[in-house]
Amino acid sequence: DFDGTLKASMTTTQVQNWSPTLQKDRLYSWVQDRFSEFDTKTGNELWFLQTDSQEKAGYEMDTFVPVDGNTAILTTPRRLICIDLQYRVEKWRTTDSLVSEYGAVPSGPPSIHRDRVFAIFGKQILSFDINTGEPSDVFDFENPIISDQPLITNDHLIAATSEETRIYSLDSGQLLQTLPNGGLLGFSNGYLMMVNFTPILPTTPPTS
User: Fold this and answer.
1) Could you give the CA distance from residue 158 to residue 186 in angstroms, rounded to a whole number?
2) What gap in Å lies between CA 76 and CA 107, rounded to an integer?
3) CA distances from 59 to 13, 33, 70, 83 (A)
4) Residue 142 CB neighbour total at 10 angstroms
5) What would the pLDDT profile of 74-125 be if each residue is shown by its tens digit?
6) CB atoms inside a 10 Å sphere around CB 21
7) CA-based angle 127:28:112, to the nearest 5?
8) Cα four-point dihedral sign 149, 125, 190, 112
């Protein structure tokens, strides 16, 4: 609660690097192969969907569930799965052909913007119609994208490799700008922030 009092607790499979998703009074989790909604007052599981065994993640999830209205997008080791939260059913899923075509599996949490889903597949960000799962624009990068989640702001899509950051127009799909630095990205108060973990070594030893 606002005063720090524990309101409820929920129990899930013990895995690492995942976060629950809170949308108004609705709390969701995506852990290994189980997507659940919990009561925010009691912590009780209200309902769940179990994916098939080949979609089961390991003990490092490295993702969370983006939710927009009555739609949630799950990232599994091989595909994206769209969940209809109103009817509590799977709506669509991406196919194995995408993995073969782009030579990569989805990584990190997707982003949702204007009825489209954006997800990182290796050196590309692929977009899909949120209602049908139909593929749309592809945004290309020279090297694997490491910025975790596509960053969307002011009708621009932004993502980074370890070497550079690219800014695309969502309206035209065209590359607008390339910045000569990469890393993890954040956006706040009109500023784009980058964190690069490449160590910088001094060229001369420090003097005493």
Assistant:
1) 10
2) 9
3) 9, 11, 28, 22
4) 10
5) 988 889 999 999 999 999 999 999 988 999 999 889 999 989 999 999 999 9
6) 17
7) 20
8) negative
